[in-house]
Amino acid sequence: MQKARKPIEIKISTVVAISAILHETDPAALDKALKDMTGGVSDFFEDEFAVLDIGALDASGAGIDWTALVALFKRYRLNAVAVRNAPEELHAEIAAQGLSIDSGAPRPQQQEAAAEEEAPQPAPAPAPAAVAAPTQAAPVAQATPAAATMIIDTPVRAGQRIYARGADLVIMAAVNNGAEIIADGSIHVYAPLRGRALAGASGNTGARIFAASLEAELVSIAGVYRTFENGHPPELAQKQVQVRLTGDRIDVLAINTSK
Predict the structure, then answer these.
(1) Alpha carbon separation from 120 to 30, 112, 116 (Å, rounded)
(2) Beta 249-254 vs 241-246: how paired, if at all?
(3) How far apart are CA 227 and CA 145, in angstroms?
(4) Mean pLDDT across the stretch 30-56?
(5) Residue 111 belongs to some domain of the structure
(6) 120-179 pLDDT tens trace
(7) What is the domain extent for residue 171?
């Protein structure tokens, strides 16, 4: 007897989106910036999801033409799915466009400050009391730390996308052209790195990319990216390299460089 098929199944899935940080909303200015960014290449973005971050806008993003903005990104094969850092008074008009509200995660500095504010104040020292006989302290169970590294032993083929959420990514084999590897932490590839590599995907500017041989078409750290249409630095050929973010610039350096 054939088992009846369910009309729908819900499974956990990881969706990675590009973060588009807007510093202005004029469609003409954004169109020119995107055209310069992509060099007119029609498939620079491959129908990827985009989160529009308006946290840097003056006046909290008031007066945005959401219809025009979504259509503009669509022309460049970016599908806007959510808006980040939007004030509450804009939530209704954003939702009316079918976009989700992404409040964004607090930055590490904010988390540290919150922890300091919430830390309990030490209680005043009690008055001396009679000393009781010592008792045997109960053993304290040690928490097992969560895994912070994803390890891949096999080659990453064209069309594959691997995302190490909340972790570093270590790949022991080659990453091929057309593959995409992503990590919230750093990326380590102990073989040729081709395709795309995006480290610090959740905004970690201290993340890095390490590769035995860098042959990638695109590298990115915390949303800042660099492409290699004109080839890779010849002085780094056949060398182990690291990719790091310096300010708003992506640097590619030989490992153990003194610079």
Answers:
(1) 48, 14, 9
(2) antiparallel
(3) 36
(4) 84
(5) no
(6) 444 444 444 444 444 444 444 444 344 589 999 999 998 888 988 889 999 999 999 989
(7) 149-254
